[in-house]
Amino acid sequence: MTPRVTLAIAARVLVQLRRDHRTLAIMLVLPCLLITLLWWMFDDLPGSTFDRIGPALLAMFPFVVMFLITSVTTLRERSGGTLERLLAMPMGKLDFLFGYAVAFGLVAAVQSALAVALSVGVLDLTIEGPVWLLTVVAIVDAVLGTALGLFVSAFARTEFQAVQFMPAVVIPQILLCGLFVPRSALPDVLGAISDVLPLSYAVDAMEHLTRSTTTGEVWVDLAVVAAYAVAGLALGAGTLRRRSP
């Protein structure tokens, strides 16, 4: 992997995104709109429901949005022949994948900062830990979505098939991450499955920041999520095809 080539790929992707206003709106605005919608739904209910589910939402929405956008965009590059032309140049697969990860990671940083600022500053989500660390967790989680999206795009032939991976890869993680039922209350088998799903650790990190000012557990969870993201990129490099069959 060559840093110069990786950064060139990242710059190319960012230029494309800047011209695609619809995709930019989905990536930057949609998570904020969804979080606001759920806050509005629970605002008049007794108790602090939004304080309970808000941390999980901050982990979930960037992950889901980046997974969808990345998997579809990468497949479009391959099916359109762009990837084949790029890989014909002196560029490795890791250059391509990490270039995409850098580009989408930068967009994820903006997306996560907007979502955290909205949730904490406007919607009054209670946070005991540092807000900057909350933003870092959201960014790493979005990068995880990017890495998994790059990985699964290798197994799809059409954009519709790429979207179909969401029920298999994303929805089980949403169901078992602790958003609906605390992970400690899950049946043993489901709890064991939850323990190997990366979104569970992202949600745990967010919840630690809402309950305590200590950050030791947050860094452990963050390291696990980052490791999954790196593994996803490595697997993506091993399965990346030049073009759809």
TrEMBL record:
GO terms for cellular component: ATP-binding cassette (ABC) transporter complex. Pfam families: ABC2_membrane. It is a multi-pass membrane protein. Keywords: Antibiotic resistance, Cell membrane, Membrane, Transmembrane, Transmembrane helix, Transport. It is found in: Cell membrane. The keyword Membrane applies. The keyword Transmembrane helix applies. PROSITE patterns: ABC_TM2. The chain crosses the membrane at residues 24-42, 54-75, 96-120, 132-155, 162-181, 218-240. GO terms for biological process: response to antibiotic. GO terms for molecular function: ABC-type transporter activity. Residues 18-243 form the ABC transmembrane type-2 domain. Belongs to the ABC-2 integral membrane protein family. This is Transport permease protein. It comes from Nocardioides silvaticus.
